[in-house]
Every structure is written in structure tokens, then in C-alpha cells.
Amino acid sequence: MPARYLSFRCSLPWLLLLLQTLLLLCSFLALPYTGDVYAPSSLYPEFQDVNHMVIFGFGFFLLVLRRYGFSSTGFNFLLVVLGVQCSVLLEDFLVFLRVQQSEAGMTSLAKAVVSMTAVVISSGAVLGKASPVQLIVMTLLELIFFYVSRCLNRTFLQVPEHLSLLHVHLFGAYFGLAVTSRFPEPPPGLDKGRSTPKSELFSMLGTVFVWVFWPSFNSMLADSKGEAVLNTYLALAVSAVCAFMLSALTSKDGKFRMPHIHSAVLAGGVTVSYTAHSIQHPWIAMILGLLGSVITILGSHCLQGCLNPALKLQDTSGVHFTFGLPAVLGAVASVVLCVVKRGIDNQWNDLSSLGYLAFVDIGAFCQTISTALLTGLITGLILNIKLLKAVHVSKYFDDQFYWEFPHLSVGF
What we know:
Blueprint: H1 3-30, H2 44-61, H3 69-96, H4 105-125, H5 132-156, H6 161-165, H7 168-180, H8 197-219, H9 225-250, H10 258-264, H11 267-271, H12 282-302, H13 304-311, H14 319-344, H15 351-383, H16 406-409
Helix pairs in contact: 1-3, 2-3, 2-4, 2-8, 3-4, 3-5, 4-5, 4-7, 5-15, 7-14, 7-15, 8-9, 8-10, 9-12, 12-14, 14-15
Membrane topology: Multi-pass membrane protein
Domain Ammonium transporter AmtB-like: 29-387
Subcellular location: Membrane
């Protein structure tokens, strides 16, 4: 049996046992002091939608590599169920520090699942290159850093709670890009990094699930749930139509390209995430959905060949163009809409108040992306220490390093 397999076998199970034991002990010590965890809540329908979206939707969304299907879905599920427990404890820790008030258990669980979206997005950037041990360490570190970023936004910039959570797309995308920049690049001729029609079909299935449940994601913790659902759905619908249109226009033979559809149909949901609850005119959400799809396809079409070689990035699942750029557009749109709304309400006379609101929105955006990049670089360096047993570049994008394939051992 190969030595590296023995090393993997002897490290991962014991790491999982250690972490789960610590989580059980921490839950036993923390939960009695954080209020009634079984208090009634009306969040279950939206929570179930978001849970499906994160586990099933993103699990298949990441299934883009032809020889990494088992790991894409399996590791996603492992990271989610482990990370949600960590997030719940972090929520309780914030209550203990009096940073936030005690909440019902369902609300805390819902926030934990939403926070895990940042990790799921980041894992798409390092898909196929990081070992399970590295992914688990990345999950723990990213959750801590994301909660620190949330606390900074809430404490110093007075960002509302549900909006601080919706920075998951921005944080997850740029954290993942920073982490993947610290991994060695695979050889140019490595064939395992390609997709196949079958893998792209399964990935599109995940995209459809994420698309269907995205309105619940944007509205679950919002005050104006009706507006958030309607605006998110319209933005998603327009971005999907625009994705098909631009895919045909930008391809050489005028045909649709599945990678374009796979990423751009979700751009509308990301773009309106900060403003879905406050937009009062549906056409505004539709325009944002259109712009989100445009920036996704044109960004991947024009910038990918320039940025990736220059910055030595290999964004395996294209999270920069699917989540990062639309999130930046959404942050800019929130500032513009805030200024325009103040003008319509005839509040331009109070320029100091207007400038303060714009400063808060811009500051939250800059703080989130700066923290994501800095902590992502630190995390990438940590993941490549010898203790965590980094995967050799020849083993990138290969399920057989981690999973059993019985049919291969009997000669079929």
C-alpha cells in the first residue's frame, strides 16, 4: 500500500474524531448559556431551502471535473456538516461576548448554514488541489475570519445583521482566490483537469437547484421577505435569459456554451443580494440581473486569459466570475441606489448624512474584500506546510487518491 495513502488514512479519521469530540464538548459547555435553543421559529421552510441549496445544489454545482466527481460532492457534504457545527458554536460565542443578542436555535442554525456558503464557494477555487485535511483546516480558519469580518462590519460600520451575512459571496470568492494562488500550478498538459459532457450535465443540475432556492437565501433573514423574494427571482430570470443570449453571441460558432450558462444564470441572485429587500421597483432588480450576467460572461471571456497567467491563479470552478465580480457589482449598486433614493426623497441638503451612508457601504465592501484577500493568503501559506501533507501536482483532480473504485481492481 502506498506510503502517502497510509499517511492520508492515518491522519484524516483521527482529525475528524478530534474535531467532533471538541465540538461536542464545546456544545455541552456553551449551549446552556445561550438561551432557549428550542424556541419556536417560522424559519424552517426557508432554512430547508437554503440547506438543500448548500448541500445538494453546491455539491453538484462543483462537479465539473471528469475525474473528481466523488470528491466534489462528498467533500462538500463533509465540510458543510462539520462547518455548520463550528458556525453554531461561533454564534454562541458571540452571544457569550455580548456582541449579539441570544436567538432561537433555528435562527442560529440558519445563520450557520448561510455562513458556510463562503466556505463552499472558496472550496470551488481550490477544487481538486487541496486534500481533505487541508480543506478541513481551511474551513475552520475561513469561518473564524468570516465571523471576524462580520463583527467588524457590525461593530464599527453598523451594518445590519442580515446584510453582514450576505457578504458571503464576496468573502468566499476572494478568500478562495487568495488561497489557490499559494498552490503550485498543475502541469499544462494535465488531462484530468478537463470536464466532460456528463460532468457538465451534473454540474448544471446543481446550478438549477441553486437557482431555484436562491430567493429563499436572500430573503430568509430579511425584514421585507416579499420584496426580497420577488426582486431576487426577477433578477435571476433576467440573468438567465441574458446568459443564453451572450453565450451565443460570444462563442465562435454561435452556439451556447455550458460553462457560460452554468455560471451566469446565478449572477442575478448574487448582484441583488445586498439590495433585494429594499428595491421598490422590480425593473431595478431586472437591470441588476442583466448587468450581473453581462459582467460574468464578459469577465470570463475577456479577463480570464489575462488575469490567471499574470496572477498565477487557477480558479477551478470559476468562482471569481460566478460570485466575485457580481458581488462587487452588487456592492457598488447598493451605494448608487442609496444615493439615488436619498435624492428622490429630497434629502440632498443633508450631504453629511448622505456621505456617511455611502462611506458605510463602501467601507463594508472594502473591509470585507481586504480581509478576505489577506486572510486567504495567510491560510494558503498555512495549508502548504509539510504537516498538512499537500497533494503532489501529479495527483491533482483525481478521485482515486481518496476513494475506492472496486471495478478497477477486478479488471473491468
